[in-house]
Amino acid sequence: MILTKAQYDEIAQCLVSVPPTRQSLRKLKQRFPSQSQATLLSIFSQEYQKHIKRTHAKHHTSEAIESYYQRYLNGVGKNGAAPVLLELANEVDYAPSLMARIILERFLQEHKETPPSKSVINSMLRDPSQIPDGVLANQVYQCIVNDCCYGPLVDCIKHAIGHEHEVLLRDLLLEKNLSFLDEDQLRAKGYDKTPDFILQVPVVMLCPLAVEGHIIHWIESKASFGDECSHHAYLHDQFWSYWNRFGPGLVIYWYGFIQELDCNRERGILLQACFPTDIVTLCHNVA
Amino acid sequence: MAAVLESLLREELSVAAAVRWIVHSAQSSEDDPGEAAALSSLRPLRKEFVPFLLNFLREQSSRVLPQGPPTPAKAPGSSAALPGRPGGPPRGGRGARSQLFPPTEPSSAAGAEAPSVRRGGRRRGPGPARERGGRGPGGLEEGVGGESLPWAGGRRPRSSGSPSSPSLARSDPPNLSNLEEFPPVGSVPPGSAGTKPSRRINPTPVSEERSLSKPKTCFTSPPINCVPSSQPSVLDTSPWGLGLPPGCRSLQEEREMLRKERSKQMQQSPAPTCPIPESGCAHPMRTGNLTAEPADPARVSSRRRLELVALVYSSCIAENLVPNIFLELFFVLQLLTARRMVAAKDSDLEPSPGTIDSLESPLFQSVHDCVFFAVQVLEHQFHILSHLDKGTLKLLAENERLLCFSPALQGRLRAAYEGSVAKVSLAMPPSAQAVSFQPETDNRANFSSDRAFHTFKKQRDVFYEVLREWEDRHEEPGWDFEKGLGSRIRAMMSQLSAACSHSHFVRLFQKQLLQMCQSPGGAGGTVLGETPDVLNMLGADKLGRLRRLQERLVAPQSSGGPCPPPTFPGCQGFFRDFILSASSFQFNQHLMDSLSLKIRELNNLALPQPEPSDEDGESDVDWQGERRQFAMVLLSLRLLAKFLGFVAFLPYRGPEPPPTRELQDSILALRSQVTPALDVRALLQQGLRARRAVLTVPWLVEFLSLADHIVPMLDYYRSIFTLLLHLHRSLVLSKETEGEMCFLNKLLLLAVLGWLFQIPTVPEDLFFLGEGQLDAFEVDTVASEHGLDSMPLVDQHLLYTCCPYIGELRKLLASWVSGSSGRSGGFVRKITPTTTTGLGAQPPRTTQGLQAQLAQAFFHNQPPSLRRTVEFVAERIGSNCVKHIKATLVADLVRQAESLLQEQLVTQGREGGDPAQLLEILCSQLCPHGAQALTLGREFCQKKSPGAVQALLPEETPAAVLNSAQNIAVGLATEKACAWLSANITALIRREVKAAVSRTLRAQGPEPAARGERRGCSRACEHHAPLPSHLISEIKDVLSLAVGPRDPEEGVSPEHLEQLLGQLGEILRCRQFLCAPAEQHLAKCSVELASLLVADQIPVLGPPIQHRLERGQARRLLLMLLSLWKDDFQVPVPLQLLLSPRNVGLLADTRPREWDLLLFLLRELVQKGLMGQMEIEACLGSLHEAQWPGDFAEELATLFNLFLAEPHVPEPQLRACELVQPNRGTLLAQS
What we know:
Structural class of chain B: mainly alpha
Shape of chain B: elongated
Order of helices and strands of chain A: HHHHHHHHHEHEEHEEE
Number of helices of chain A: 11
Number of strands of chain B: 0
Number of helices of chain B: 49
Oligomer: heterodimer
Region (Disordered) (chain B): 63-224
Radius of gyration of chain A: 23 Å
Helix content of chain A: 40-55%
Organism (chain B): Catagonus wagneri (Chacoan peccary)
Distance between the termini of chain B: 134 Å
Helix content of chain B: 40-55%
Protein name (chain B): Codanin 1
Domain Codanin-1 C-terminal (chain B): 789-903
InterPro entries (chain B): Codanin-1, Codanin-1_C
């Protein structure tokens, strides 16, 4: 699912100020039936995160927090069973899970003598049963299960997706008989930067239109869509670091990427949306 | 001095005697007594003869060479028009010498010169001063002092006021009619990139001598009938025009006639057809109007005189009495290619007062004289010429003047060309490759702290980021290294706090330097002889052309005249600028340490020993390898030494020598205390003694070339220069005796030394030291009978790679062909002879152990490959031995440590006590076992080495030799391994045990779940289970539907729920894609799901009335969950959440409330052993504490009692429950 910049922009355009709910996702899928759902979800998630990063600060002023808390109290005062917190989040265009965190933090400040630690709050968000107030627990839980971009469940899903694709890649490598060192082995050896896999014997990836192939020393699996923002961050934090240590390598964005970002091939960073099919390995018997 | 020359010219003195007189201070018995008498009176002046002669020749040529202005003051601009030609008036030795090769400070006139200089990068063009990324591509001084030294011009500051200075021309407005600077669009600038511009035009062979060039196949217009385009390669093999088809013949003849006709015309009017412009803004050198005057042997004015001077001059060159033979060759070639002569004005021809009779008239009165003289000298220097590269030989052989004046020499050159394989090509620079990460040297264990480790991690990335940016941008106009990268580099350097981090960074820096800059050919000279030379390129096939073009575009294009200053071309510029921008004292110190170490290591590397005369092809292959290795080592050494010199002398470098004697003395006093960064003198002496000068001297020259002005005056370095001078004098090329240095080895040394002597920081007088010590110069070479010097290690490719400036000869000749005149660059200096003293001391000799000597002796008569094999095997086996010990003995000990630790933990409880203390206890128990390592290591080496040696040596190796080789390998490997083991085994065990302890203690920590990860599924599993991420997200959707808000039409079908639980089972059984966090979340979600089932909160899709799940279905789903919890989850399932107030509270919202499912679930949990009765009771008990609506609390209490009262018998519970519930009956009746 490699998109041109223009295709990507068209999708991103549709995602402005869309709340991260089930319903929004359903509509998005109807709008772009030809794109894979996973790709759409990944783009949606990334766009939403960018949006949240931009607006994060304004929701965390003490005035905003106070006003949200009051609105929450009023709401549940009228009807504790209504989705007060979720609606509040959607209304102010903020992620429900993050809104739940704000309110929970504020609630705990009011009811506990010492300010709550981050780990306590995280633990309560993971398991709202620990929240001393039953109504709030339900409200928080509702926010978390209805948020498809943030929250402990989403985090877990993302982690699981990443893990699954690493396993997938590992299987493909084993299938192709390519010996490798994985992240854990590399860490055990004391490598300071660890791609998902380092090939013990490099391979050459052939590209349809290029005369020469590209040497691959390492492979990094990314179970997300490669947009400009995340790709640049990855380049800086990971891919170039791998290049600096291990030479040229391959990044697989399983959910696709913006075509124009694949511009460092000659320098030694290749992008693919799947495991490459045309691979040349070193022949041991040159007869 | 003139007297000597005078007597020579009068033939009162034989040339041989004169040369003997110059070379040896003492008179030889061969000398005629009369000559001796004449010379002895001149003895004090003896050492001034050579500089006098050189200056004399330059001056003489200045009088007649055409572009020399009649009087400099009249046309200062035009004096620079032909740099390389003396521009100044004869003013006596000192003044004139400095002007021999006028500066290359750009003038509008200078722009017309040979392309070499324009591309040299030294030239500061009229554009922005820092054209290419700040400090200029290669320049050295800029950025240091902020002031640019005009080295490029080869001018000392004191001569800047010379009337021939072209700087006046700088302010000239651009001359738009100048075809060179403003060529018509689409035209090929003449001489650009050193090629002939005429190649695309129909063939215009000027003479038969030009036929060496490729056949004139054109691709823009069809070739004239002569050459079938399919035949170029055939013609190339007999390129002398002899094999030309008849059609060409006639063309050639036609042209020949034309030529003769024209030369006849020229002779009738000897004055140049175009007058020399007098004004400074005119450009006499424009190729458009420049035609070379034909030279005629018949018109040479005073043959005998010229012959004599040529002979003396040649003898001086042959005896290495001149500082730089290639500079002299360049001068001679300039004479050969002189275009026209100026009708000398009377004033110039008038004898200066004090000149003596036969020197009265100019030596060169015409172009004919110049060419005659040049050819004479070239004849004497044929031996050197024949060793130049093929391209130069071809150009020489094709030179029609040379043919005209000496057909014999031309014949010899042609033969040399045909026999030569010495093609030199510019190779592609290697692209940047990063230094790879090696755990042995780069992992955490090599750093003092986590912080240092992570800091270095970041630094490595910043370093490459900076490097990449430099690669991308340094050629952009206006980009500046310091501005672009300086602050980032300094920020990075400032983080290097610990000494250990510095050494890590320096290692990275040095490795990257070697990787990127080691040799222009990357793999080391593989392109030798493969590519056609520049002038042939257009005749070659398309691919070849493309390749040449590419080379030309990427290769450093010019070295900038025959004597360029030291530069940092290409990637070297990055490293230089990095050092300057970093300006970190610590970094520089560490870098010097590291460079010194590496230089020592490489300099002492055992390089090829002479092969016993073994002529088969096999050893030839070996020999190629040896040569390549030598070239690699030599180039690496030169690079490292250059940077060592750069850093070591950086603090002292300034643009000017100290102004006064007093200041100089005080600086000398200070500096003489400073110990050199590397004891280069000792290494030089060692190298000379071991006959390894061919390896040592080239890098030493690189090192010294970056010295500051004071260095050569320091005793230490003065003695080095003395040694080098002695060496230079001793490398007489004509002497080729057995066991002497090979010709090309000598030529390389002469070239690099000659270059060194021309560098501005080296005092001018240094070369003409009093020769008193020269005779005493004896090198003690007993230590090694066969050194590297006597092996043919240097080939033309290496020579030209090390000394690209030799290529200027070819450029000069090529520019003659292309119609524009060559131009010199670089610095050529006047020579002021003085006498100095000083001699280096001999270093003490080292002694070696007897065994080592025997081993040495053993190898001496064996092929070098044997020694390398043995050393290699020993090195590898030794290293593997250590790894083997680590994997066996140490690993065993670590396992012991782990089990001991486990015991400890069991006896002392979970905490097990202080980790540091634990470690001490374990180490004290285990470290003594390390003593076994030596025994085991010995065994390992004993076992492994012999086989490896045997496998690597040829089969016919005699048994005894094999046996000895194996024994030596075993010995060396054992020595290496045991040395390491005895020093490090305890520390190694400690380190590994420590890691194991912290691992074990961590594993005891709060994340036992993580250890259950990836327990794998059965072998038969084909991993068709759905992905966990997918399932979590499906379940999440169900949860969100249940919790709401939802649209009225939204819901889940019972089948879907069943399917989800089925998938959950598959995932938990396959586990291929399951990770611990996912499983934990699945467990939690399954509990949530159960609670929702119990509370009947899941909105069900189906017929409009049925919005609730059927009881039976709910029970079936709960049973599925119970079974998953019991059998399939490998992480703890948070079942207590079923009784959390929040989940129980879900029941409160349902009307009518139904408790049966909850009771059912609780009973099953107990039944299946998933939860204890007590546990559930506790949970139920704590539920009472929560605040509930009155009736709900009541029902809850009933449930509690019921649960307590009933013994767990499966079936009857349901009925009992129904009995308890007052409204239960009605509900059941409804369903």
